[in-house]
Structure formats: C-alpha cells, structure tokens
Write a structure and sequence with these properties.
Keywords: Glycosyltransferase, Transferase
CATH architecture of the largest domain: 3-Layer(aba) Sandwich
Pfam family, one: Glycos_transf_1
InterPro entries: Glyco_trans_1, Glyco_trans_4-like_N
CATH superfamily of the largest domain: Glycogen Phosphorylase B
Strand order of the largest sheet: 12-11-10-13-14-15
Order of helices and strands: EHEHEHEHEEEHEHEHEHEHEHEHEEHHH
Number of strands: 15
Shape: elongated
Strand content: 15-25%
Family: Belongs to the glycosyltransferase group 1 family. Glycosyltransferase 4 subfamily.
Distance between the termini: 22 Å
GO molecular function: glycosyltransferase activity
Structural class: alpha/beta
Number of domains: 2
CATH class of the largest domain: Alpha Beta
Length: 356
C-alpha cells in the first residue's frame, strides 16, 4: 500500500481496514506513507511500515519516496502495488515498475479538485494497470477526461463503526447537557471542507444548539478567528484532532459536512452506520444518496446549509427516519465486507495477469 499519510482521514481509514483485513487472512502487507497514528497502530499488529515523504511537494521528495519504495520491493517478491491518489501512484510507478520487474499497480482515486481531473486521468492512464474510483461521480469525471473505461472500476467506500458509549455518557464526557441540540463536523480544517461557510450558517441556528468541530489543518486559526468575530465561542467548540469518532457521533444529533467537493466521504458513511442523521452539500458521490437518507443542500450557500440544519434539528420524526435509513444503507450498500471483496477480486485479477 502506498499513501501520502496515515493519520486521520477517509482514505487512511480505508487503507487501515484493508491492511488489517489482508493481514488477518494471512497476506503479507507493507504500508509506505508519512508517519501517523494509524501507521503506529498497524505496526502494533505486526504490519511493516516504510516512511516516505509523500506529503512534501517537488521532484526531490518524490524521488526519495520512489527510492524507498524500490528498496522495499527489492527485499522480497511483491504481487500487487495499491496506491491511493495520484502522487502516491506516481511514486509507486517510479519505484517499483521497471522492465525487469513490472509489479501490477492499482490506483484508488478518493476525490480531486475539478481542475485536477484532466492531469489525473492522463497520468493514471499511463502509470496504473487498474484505477478504482470511490464513487460513480469520480469515475465519470476521470472517464470524461480521457481515462480508458477498460482500466476503471468503482468500489464505493465503506464504514464500520465500533461500539461507542451511550449518548448520556458521551455527552457527559464532553460536558454537554442531555437536552442540548448537538451538531458535529468531522473534517480536516482545509479549504474544500468550507468551515467558513459552516460558521456563517451557524449564526442562523439559535441557542442553545452547540456545534462541535473535530479536526485540524491549515485553516484552524482562520476558523477560530471567524468564530470569535461572530461571537459564537460559547456555541462552537473546536476540538482539534480526535481519534474517538464513535464517541463524538454518540453525542451528536446531526453530522454536517459543507464541502465544496467530495468523493464519497467516510465521515458521512460512519454517521449513517451509527444512526446519526446527516446534512451535507450535494457534491460528488453524496449526490447518489437517497434524499430521505441524507439532507442534501446546495453547496456554497450558508442560507441553504442553515435551512437544512434547522429542518433536521426541528423534526424528531425526520431524524428517526434518517437514522433508520442510514443504518439500512450502511448495511446493504456500504458494508466493509462488500468493499473488501471487490478489492480482493481486483487484486486477484492483477496477480493473475502479471508478466514474468
């Protein structure tokens, strides 16, 4: 597995699940990435990890990453390379695929900025044997920009939430009263996630509702300043990086995700699996979800986001229906067993097709 980092994030969650599953069934798996807490957890399970500078930009860092991947591949035979997103795919291609040893390479695309799809389609068509899109929307965009359909598969992300604490216990741990409406945003504090839009929308949601923002990133200071300027410090709590998603979801009445773009976000799937209603921007793979399961709102509009939150928070019956439908969809469509089986099928096909 090759991925930029192994911290908190949707792609990292998928990689952690696949690696643990493969290791449990007896496969030997190594993960090349920047260090992170998920990598540490995999090390504790006996999975080999290799530090590669894939978050750093520039050809120098890419060259170092490729060299370390090549060293890893030369240590023993490798049946399949599985890279996540474009830069990791290029590093895997440079490091492990040369005429004398052409290891099959699969690349999963978890979602890109619209302007990045043309380059991604061109590069992946050249370096990858198979490309997996996490949603039909991502697949359509790649195909639109020239990626050959014969190389393209769709494997939707999946979520499996461990048992969290009860609602009262989760709220007590956070110092929140049982009767206070709670909205949770689980997302890195980066431009595509649009926390600025969320804070603006929150001004329209009346007290005593509380907004929990879990995540960290380059926009943390900017978001904190916006909260202060809006006078919302008593109703918006910036929790920083968290590893207890199950606890936070147990405390929440609604999950919100106001992104400008998404592939198929794990936070939404995790909320559905936990029975937490979702209000999200109608973008990317989210548009494939049933409107009775997820409240989809126009992207980029604080007013639309606020209206969606108020509709869901104001109707206990709607929340109950959304929770039931979310759990059913998580079981029927977004199960980890289905995701693992689809990836395993592609691994097997690639391994059978490899050239001597």
């Amino acid at each position: 597995m090759v991925i930029a980092e192994m911290g908190t994030g949707g792609a990292e969650t998928v990689v952690s699940d696949l690696v643990a599953h493969l290791a449990d069934q007896g496969d030997h798996v190594a993960v090349a990435s920047e260090p992170g807490w998920r990598a540490e957890h995999l090390q504790e399970r006996g999975v080999r990890t290799v530090a590669v500078p894939l978050r750093s930009r520039g050809p120098g860092a890419l060259g170092v990453a490729a060299a370390r991947i090549r060293g890893e591949v030369l240590r023993r035979p490798v049946d399949v390379l599985h890279a996540h997103n474009v830069r990791a795919s290029v590093a895997a291609h440079l490091g492990a695929r040369w005429p004398a040893r052409r290891t099959p390479l699969m690349s999963t695309v978890h979602g890109l900025a619209e302007s990045d799809y043309p380059t991604a389609a061109r590069v992946l068509d050249r370096v990858a044997d198979r490309v997996v899109a996490v949603s039909d929307d991502v697949a359509a965009r790649l195909e639109q920009h020239g990626l050959r359909r014969t190389r393209l598969d769709v494997v939707e992300n999946a979520a499996e939430m461990g048992a969290g604490p009860g609602r009262d216990r989760a709220r007590a741990d956070l110092g929140i009263a049982p009767d206070v409406p709670v909205v949770l945003c689980l997302a890195r504090l980066a431009p595509p996630k649009r926390h600025d839009l969320l804070v603006e929308a929150w001004r329209r949601v009346p007290a005593p509702a509380v907004l929990l923002v879990a995540g960290d990133g380059e926009h943390r200071d900017r978001v904190a300043e916006q909260v202060r300027a809006a006078g919302l410090e008593h109703r918006v709590r910036l929790l920083g990086q968290r590893r207890d998603a199950a606890r936070l979801l147990a405390a929440a009445d609604v999950l919100v995700l106001p992104s400008d773009r998404e592939g198929l976000p794990m936070t939404v799937l995790e909320a559905m699996a936990a029975g937490v209603p979702v209000v999200a921007s109608a973008v990317g793979g989210l548009r494939s979800l049933d409107a009775r399961t997820v409240e989809l709102v126009a992207p980029g509009s604080p007013a639309a986001l606020a209206d969606g939150l108020l509709r869901v928070l104001g109707s206990a019956s709607q929340r109950a229906e959304m929770a039931a439908r979310g759990r059913a969809a998580a079981t029927a469509r977004f199960s980890v067993e289905t995701m693992r089986a689809r990836y395993q099928r592609i691994y097997d096909e690639l391994n059978r097709s490899r050239r001597p």
